[in-house]
Design goal:
heterodimer, A: alpha+beta, Ubiquitin-like (UB roll), DNA polymerase, domain 1, B: alpha+beta, Aldehyde Oxidoreductase, domain 4, Aldehyde Oxidoreductase, domain 3, seven-stranded mixed β-sheet, six-stranded mixed β-sheet, 23 helices, about 30% helix, globular
């Protein structure tokens, strides 16, 4: 909450043309390629395919334990690849600029903002999204089970980001206190704002991690 | 209290598994074949006229498929907005929309649009527009007087007074009312506090922006959009896009938050649908965070003069209010009216007057935000009541209690000289229980304790707001497989009332919840007429309508059994998915088969005449699918339905840095019968945290020279984060859980009042930490305000009544 000086940063930052163009490119290009099936048909995409860097576009990603072959633009973000190429819409985009954490995914077990990670950076690494948590037999991950048992979250648009960050927490520090959980989750914003319940979910998830799920 | 099997019990809501596995689909998660992407051209100025517009170069770009401008839309009747405009009234006002094969092409095409703006005068602060020589935000006026746009200037007031931070009196207003005689009331008072106060505008900022995807097939529009209310979005959106309601299919199963900004149809989805129609292809419009900040609506700020008269025992005898509300550029929002109504309800003065005006500004459009007017009322007035308690030497909770409403309390603007009444109020019971549960005396004992540079403060505040409506329809089908389909047209923005209220039907049927299937969020699934999911109405309205539907289904089941086995229908019981008398028994499945055979009132062929047209349409579509029950809630109401929350905050203020840390927060809620405990607590605490934002720094900053936002993203306008709330222990909750006597089940809504309760409690706690007479009369309280207040040699950074600074 509010210090005026932050707004100064905003002005400076937004006046930087290169950053703005980068952001614009990042935001737009994912969608461009997301529609690549259509784009390539009408010839417009051919021009894109000849753009600098285009040679490296076809990459193999490991997402939720599966190898996925995907056509990725150089400036494409992981959040857009997941959502528009791989059909993994559980990862949400709330701000597209590393402010809210709705797009949080795990890369080699470490939480990252999917909106601010270029897809090309995750080649050869393990990406985990909320769709990858549930076991094949339908058993929920302890964090998911904690959400269900505590009726956590409301609109749930922030949920997958929080859940992925909690998965990292339970892996890293299963003995974390409520306060440590708050520190760990502080990169995620929930606008329904029941952080109190979110922390109770985190405590329950940590307890399930230590002692097994009891529901 | 009645013994219930489902009401008042926790359970897992039917949307939970989809949400927690990522399978739930929000508007932007849908794809359609050949889907185009849209980008908007937004106004770079707060007020301008499009002088020249040439879209030919943009349209000629490869991949660009359609351009929609204001000229493609029927003109909106002022002061409404059309969705696109040639006279933008705020920075970010959409001018035109372009659909292209991908978002990058659409963005490039926006850059290729040749457009020239003629800048027009603008105004950001409503008070500046009231000055004799002040600009108007709109060319057609600066306010609505009655049904007409007009211009009002305060020529006869002392503007020097305003420049000293005092709201001048005597200016012309558009609305006023009085009960009793305020002058006589103040004459009776032992203490009169006459304050100028301000509560700032702030955006809703749901985490899901209002993205939409639409396509047309065979004359029907299919729209995936983000709305709080499904049934109540249909009519408005259908009108906007020029189709009959039955030719609009809305898919809105999941809404990523709204807080009042998505109550029904939103104008940007209209643009998406019409762009899709023009392009002849599906169009996805991903609304960016910054766009959401511009057109995602905001709670209007209110600048006010508030005069409160108290008896020496703390009784509030008179309140006199002058409200100037920020109207934004479009529409007509009445927060200042409801602010006065809520003041009247919370403080129950015998004598009260309200005079107010909404003034248009070139700032983002205003709309209802969770307790519209109610939050501003608490933020402005709770500190005045708190201050009086201190000056009169009274307990600060007792002064809230003694003035709180009870029973069928009267309140608000009188109609034909008579104030209306609430259906019930157990606010005093809630306060009494909270005093004990939360150990108010123990909290008070920590007041002003000093730890290094940090001083503890505690505060409490009451907040009331609307919590129900009536006359809504219920619709259910008992299917031949024995399942009970409960149809609901309320949306699902996470309050879970679409499901929680459906439990009333199963409670009436005395049948396990596992036998229920809730049908929601898709108008092709035949939804009944529902209330808006706003103003915390659904819990009350739909427990009533679903209870009525459950009882009606029970009656029909008994009749079917009597028809089968003979005897009177009353001799049959309904429970556990069966209708039975001794050993004679029909399962719901068998009864549903029989209902289809019987037809008439049993299978939906004959429907009640008093149900809404939408319900009739849906029930008719369900005809023959089982035992079909459609019914209107015709129960008595007992008055207007209001709920009450009392917040308790404990803060630590660092007197060297001005930093405020929230140490603890607890709230007590009188919401009638508790419907779903875990969700109730979530609403009270989540709303509370939004109230922390109101009190502690969520606000706009606008550049007065250019009229542009400088705080338009999360990191600069800063809604609360997890570290801004008490996080080393759970926040507290308490409730008297007493049923509203005028409703079956007796549940009232809860979404609105938690916000103000928390905001008021925090404001009072900060004041408490700083002294016995240190009040800010302004929210949010920023660090610089605290430091200036503590250092009399420093001048305040701005006029305490100024907006958007």
């Amino acid at each position: 909450m509010g210090d005026v000086e932050h707004t100064q940063l905003q002005v400076v930052e937004e006046s930087g043309v290169s950053r703005r163009n980068f952001i614009k490119g990042v935001i737009a290009s994912g969608a461009a390629v997301s529609a690549s099936n259509y784009v390539l048909r009408n010839g417009h995409g051919v021009a894109l395919a000849q753009a600098p860097g285009a040679v490296e576009r076809l990459v193999t990603l490991t997402v939720n334990g599966q190898q996925r072959r995907v056509d990725v633009m150089p400036q494409e973000t992981l959040a857009m690849t997941l959502r528009y190429k791989l059909g993994l819409t559980g990862t949400k985009i709330g701000c597209d600029r590393a402010e809210c954490g709705a797009c949080t995914v795990l890369i080699d077990g470490v939480s990252h903002y999917g909106c601010s990670t270029l897809t090309h950076q995750v080649r050869g690494r393990e990406v985990m999204t909320i769709e990858g948590l549930e076991s094949a037999d339908g058993t929920l991950h302890p964090v998911q089970q904690a959400v269900v048992d505590k009726q956590g979250f409301q609109c749930a648009f922030c949920m997958s980001g929080f859940v992925m960050n909690m998965v990292e927490l339970t892996n890293e520090n299963p003995n974390a206190t409520r306060k440590e959980a708050a520190q760990h989750l502080s990169g995620n914003i929930c606008r329904c704002a029941d952080y109190n319940r979110i922390l109770t979910v985190a405590e329950t998830a940590l307890e399930y991690t230590r002692n097994g799920v009891r529901s | 209290m009645a013994e219930y099997k489902l009401i008042g019990k926790d359970y897992t809501t039917p949307d939970m598994l989809a949400k927690v596995t990522g399978r739930s689909k929000y508007a932007e998660d849908f794809r359609a074949e050949g889907m185009l992407f849209a980008k908007l051209l937004l106004s770079p100025m707060p007020h301008a006229r499009v002088r020249r517009l040439d879209t030919s170069a943009a349209m000629a770009m490869p991949g660009v498929e359609a351009i929609l401008t204001a000229d493609d839309l029927p003109e909106a009747e002022a002061p409404q907005e059309a969705g696109l405009t040639n006279e933008p009234l705020y920075e970010g006002d959409p001018i035109l929309a372009i659909a292209a094969v991908d978002e990058e092409t659409a963005a490039e095409a926006i850059e290729a649009v040749e457009i020239d703006f003629e800048p027009l005068p603008f105004v950001l602060d409503p008070m500046e527009s009231l000055r004799p020589d002040g600009p108007n935000a709109r060319l057609d006026g600066n306010t609505m007087a009655g049904r007409d746009l007009s211009t009002i200037k305060w020529n006869n007031v002392d503007w020097n007074e305003f420049d000293r931070g005092v709201m001048p009196l005597g200016g012309e207003v558009t609305d006023e009312w009085q009960v009793g005689d305020v002058e006589a009331g103040f004459a009776e008072a032992d203490l009169v506090l006459d304050e100028s106060v301000f509560s700032a505008s702030l955006s809703h900022q749901p985490l899901e922006t209002r993205s939409a995807m639409a396509y047309w097939q065979n004359g029907k529009c299919y729209m995936h959009c983000s709305t709080q209310s499904t049934a109540r979005t249909e009519g408005g959106m259908a009108r906007w896009i020029g189709v009959d309601p039955e030719d609009l299919v809305l898919i809105t199963e999941y809404c990523g938050g709204g807080f009042g900004s998505k109550i029904s149809a939103n104008i940007q989805a209209r643009v998406t649908a019409l762009l899709s129609k023009k392009a002849g292809k599906a169009v996805m419009h991903r609304v960016t965070r910054q766009e959401e900040n511009f057109f995602g609506r905001a709670r209007p700020g209110i600048q006010a003069r508030a005069k409160f008269g108290f008896k020496s025992d703390g009784t509030i005898v008179a309140i006199d209010l002058v409200h100037v509300q920020d109207g934004g550029p479009y529409g007509r929002s009445g927060d200042f009216m409801s602010a006065a109504d809520q003041a009247s309800l919370m403080y129950q003065p015998d004598h009260m007057r309200m005079r107010g005006i909404t003034v248009y500004t070139n700032t983002p459009p205003k709309g209802a935000q969770r307790a519209p007017g109610g939050v501003q009322a608490v933020a402005m007035f709770a500190p005045i009541v708190d201050k009086a308690a201190k000056q009169l030497g009274l307990d600060r909770l007792e002064i809230i209690r003694m003035n709180a409403p009870e029973g069928q309390a009267l309140f608000g603007r009188p109609r034909q000289g008579q104030q209306g009444n609430v259906s019930s109020a157990f606010a005093k019971e809630a306060i009494d229980k909270a005093r004990e549960d939360f150990d108010w005396d123990g909290m008070q004992a920590r007041s002003k304790q000093r730890n290094g540079t940090k001083v503890t403060g505690v505060g409490a505040a009451i907040s009331s707001y609307s919590a129900g409506t009536s006359g809504i329809d219920g619709l259910l089908v008992i299917r031949p497989d024995g399942q009970v389909e409960i149809h609901t047209g309320v949306g699902n923005l996470g309050t879970e009332s679409f499901s929680d209220t459906s439990r009333a039907a199963m409670e009436a049927l005395d049948t396990p919840w596992e036998q229920a299937e809730v049908v929601w969020g898709d108008t092709s699934k035949h939804l009944p007429w529902s209330c808006i999911q706003g103003g915390s109405m659904t819990t009350h309205a739909h427990t009533r309508s679903n209870w009525a539907a459950g009882l009606e289904a029970k009656k029909r089941l008994q009749e079917i059994a009597a028809d089968r086995f003979g005897g009177s229908s009353d001799s049959f019981q309904v429970a556990d998915g069966r209708v039975y008398r001794g050993g004679q028994s029909l399962s719901f499945a068998q009864a549903a088969e029989r209902a289809i055979e019987l037809g008439g009132v049993y299978d939906g062929s004959e429907l009640p005449e008093d149900i809404n047209e939408m319900t009739t349409r849906s029930a008719t579509a369900l005809q023959g699918r089982g035992l079909v029950v459609a019914i209107k809630d015709n129960y008595e109401t007992g008055g207007r339905n209001m709920s009450y929350v009392i917040g308790f905050a404990e803060v630590e203020v660092d007197v060297e840095t001005g930093a405020v840390k929230l140490v603890d927060y607890k709230a007590s809620a009188d919401v009638g019968t508790i419907l779903h405990p875990t969700n109730l607590v979530a609403q009270v605490h989540g709303g509370g945290v939004q109230g922390f934002g109101v009190a502690l720094g969520q606000k706009w900053v606008m550049d007065p020279q250019w009229g542009l936002h400088v705080a338009k993203r999360f990191y600069s306008n800063r809604p609360p984060t997890i570290l801004d709330v008490p996080h080393d222990k759970e926040m507290g909750f308490s409730s008297p859980n007493l049923p509203d006597p005028f409703s079956p089940i007796g549940a009232r809504g809860v979404g609105e009042p938690p916000v103000g309760a928390a905001a008021g409690a925090v404001l009072n706690a900060i004041a408490d930490a700083l002294g016995d007479d240190v009040y800010f009369n302004r929210s949010p309280i920023m660090r610089d305000m605290i430091l200036t207040k503590l250092s009399p040699e420093l001048d305040e950074a701005h006029n305490p009544l100024s907006a958007h600074v």
